Automatic annotation (TrEMBL):
Signal peptide: none annotated. This is Phosphotransferase. Pfam families: Choline_kinase, HTH_24, NTP_transf_3. Residues 92-202 form the MobA-like NTP transferase domain. It comes from the Bacteria. It comes from Niallia oryzisoli. Coiled coil: none annotated.
Length: 626
């Protein structure tokens, strides 16, 4: 039908046109044109007249009606641009180039409980699986770069003409950076976390988030037709009906984004065009969906007055709703893992954690610990290996009963230790506690069990260095000098006769949990693997800040000996240096991702430097320049 209409349209404009010219205009072959014109004549929609060598074509009254109905039919039809209905999203584009009259800085740097709004949004996006961040800058770009310099995986793209262009020009600036579907976010939006999650997971690949009308006075109204985006305007008089209000967050496919940029570059003559109206232009031909969230808590902050009102009226509601959302997310993990109903979950309480988030949960009067992995741990920890090692520890009676472990997500549920008393660096120095901790370590190291993986501290150093580069992190100085000394020490260490055994490899005091007076558990096996058992001993001595006397007692109890061999002393010192160096890199990675560990990392780095000067190691490092 489309080819027939195209031929009739050409004839309608010029009845003296030849079949050759029709073919050139429509892009069809001459043979195809001849066949279709004969079909139109047979249908009674077209007739021809011959004058000399020339033939003229005319459209009949029936043909005019056919052409009219065909136009109407095709005007309402849109193309489904995608064969695949859903794709994972890992990229966000944030438009932050514009200037607001009320502020001398980008609107995204307005504070929300002491932190910039933009940082809050970046952290929520990261928490929901976004790993690549592209921010379009313009006004006060240096200020923006300075505020977010420590956030990982950000690319800044400048719109140098931000003063004289609209948001579509800013969006077009990222054309070379986009290779897949992405989330489009405006910098001045405060929104609840659940909305981000819902939009990312919504099945339509092109989808605008809309909410109920706020009555703010600056709304961009939205009309939906046949289940798709139909109209956007701030002028309510243009609407037959108002279905919602544009929020400032949209999911875009690579294909639709490409169409928007192409239309903007080839046909647009208005530099002040905003992206939502260009999206509306594309929506004339392609299906653009929507997600409407009722009772959505959100606001934009374009003015000082808006900011004050939002922080006073909107943000307290948003905080309460987000707290409920987080608790519900936790409960959903439990429902899925334990096959219980939400009603069976009686209590959820935060339970500490440095790298991960732990919760004490009560289900049908039984108590458990739920572990949710921290941001970025999926690159640093092999969850399959952790699952195997946790199961091994439980079977040895060293760790509590493991109830559930999802090796893909890292979610873990274990039985809560009864009458639990977590050790700390001070209580770990007591002799009665040392007797418990060393007995558990001997049981582990002497079990004869085989863990599937090996914890190689030197491989970890290389791995962590690579991760540090990926997040644009920086090490402490003089890093290269210290690294050279560590590598020299490695050569000597690898020449020693060391028998690998199952090890925990992360012996902070808090990973030992007492149950009553005579039972202690060793928990959290994220870094478990075959290793030098002295690595565990050195780790515990470091993490608990043992004095020389503390360490001597600890080793005597472990070795069941009054004498501590010199080779053990050397291995202890070497492993302390290796660990301090390794975990200082780990800290720099975590801090580059937005965490704050105070002086923890630099303290460990400096302690490694100090221990490298120990006389016990002088002969091993004599050929390395100070």
């Amino acid at each position: 039908m489309e080819h027939l209409l195209r031929i009739m349209e050409v004839i309608n404009k010029n009845n003296n046109v030849s079949q050759k010219k029709i073919a050139e205009t429509t892009g069809l072959s001459i043979g195809k044109v001849n066949y279709l014109i004969n079909d139109l004549i047979l249908r009674g929609f077209v007739f021809s007249e011959k004058t000399g060598r020339y033939i003229s074509y005319y459209i009949t009254e029936d043909g005019i009606e056919f052409l009219k109905n065909g136009y109407e039919s095709f005007k309402e039809k849109k193309i489904n641009i995608h064969q695949q209905s859903f794709k994972d999203i890992n990229t966000v584009v944030i438009l932050a180039a514009g200037k607001r009259k009320d502020f001398n800085h980008p609107a995204g740097l307005l504070t929300v409980e002491g932190q910039p709004l933009l940082r809050r949004n970046l952290e929520l996006l990261q928490k929901n699986g976004i790993s690549k961040f592209i921010i379009v800058t313009g006004f006060q770009k240096e200020t923006l770069l300075g505020e977010l310099a420590d956030f990982p995986d950000i690319e800044f793209v400048e719109n140098p003409k931000y003063k004289w262009t609209g948001s579509m020009a800013s969006l077009a600036c990222v054309e070379e950076k986009i290779t897949d579907d992405f989330l489009l976010f405006e910098e001045d939006i405060l929104i609840e976390e659940s909305a981000i999650h819902q939009l990312i997971m919504y099945p339509q690949r092109d989808c605008m988030l809309i909410a109920s009308e706020t009555g703010s006075g600056d709304e961009a109204f939205v009309e939906i037709k046949d289940g798709y985006l139909h109209k956007i305007s701030k002028d309510i008089h243009q609407f037959n009906r108002v279905d919602g209000e544009m929020v400032g967050m949209t999911k875009l496919s690579f294909e639709v984004f490409s169409e928007m940029v192409k239309e903007f570059k080839e046909n647009n003559q208005n530099p002040y065009m905003n992206y939502e109206y260009m999206l509306l232009d594309v929506a004339r031909h392609y299906h653009i969906g929507f997600l409407k969230i009722h009772n959505l808590v959100w606001a934009e902050m374009d003015t000082k007055q808006q900011h004050e009102q939002v922080m006073k009226n909107v943000y307290p509601i948003l905080k309460r709703k987000e707290a409920e959302y987080r608790e519900n997310q936790i409960k959903l993990h439990l429902v899925d893992a334990m096959e219980v109903s939400i009603e069976d979950i009686q209590k959820v309480e935060p339970f500490g954690g440095m790298t991960n988030k732990n919760y004490k949960v009560t289900i049908k009067d039984d108590e458990y610990v739920l572990r949710l992995p921290g941001n970025g741990t999926e690159k640093m920890i092999n969850r399959y290996e952790e699952k195997v090692n946790s199961t091994l520890a439980s079977s040895l009676g060293i760790d509590t009963e493991l109830i559930y472990f999802n090796e893909e997500t890292g979610v873990k549920i274990s039985k809560l230790i009864p009458n639990a008393e977590t050790l700390n660096p001070t209580t770990a120095k007591r002799e009665d506690h040392m007797r418990l901790t060393t007995s558990v370590l001997k049981k582990l190291h002497q079990s004869g069990a085989e863990m599937e993986n090996q914890f190689d501290v030197f491989e970890k150093m290389v791995e962590y260095e690579q991760l540090l580069q990926e997040v644009n992190g920086k090490m402490y100085e003089p890093y290269e000098e210290v690294k050279a000394q560590v590598i020299a020490l490695k050569r000597e260490y690898e020449m020693m006769d060391i028998q690998l055994t199952p090890c925990h490899n992360d012996l902070v005091a808090e990973n030992f949990v007492k149950s009553g007076d005579d039972k202690i558990y060793l928990i959290d096996w994220e870094y478990g693997g075959m290793n030098d058992p002295t690595f565990d001993l050195a780790a515990h001595a470091l993490e608990c800040d043992f004095s020389e006397e503390d360490e001597e007692l600890f080793l005597r109890l472990y070795l069941d000996s009054e004498e501590i061999p010199v080779d053990i002393q050397k291995r202890m010192l070497m492993n302390k240096i290796f660990q301090d160096f390794l975990w200082s890199i780990w800290t720099c990675i975590k801090e580059a991702k937005g965490d704050d560990f105070g002086t923890y990392g630099i303290d460990r780095f400096n302690r490694a430097r100090m221990n490298l000067k120990n006389p016990l190691l002088r002969e091993h490092l004599k050929y390395v320049k100070e």
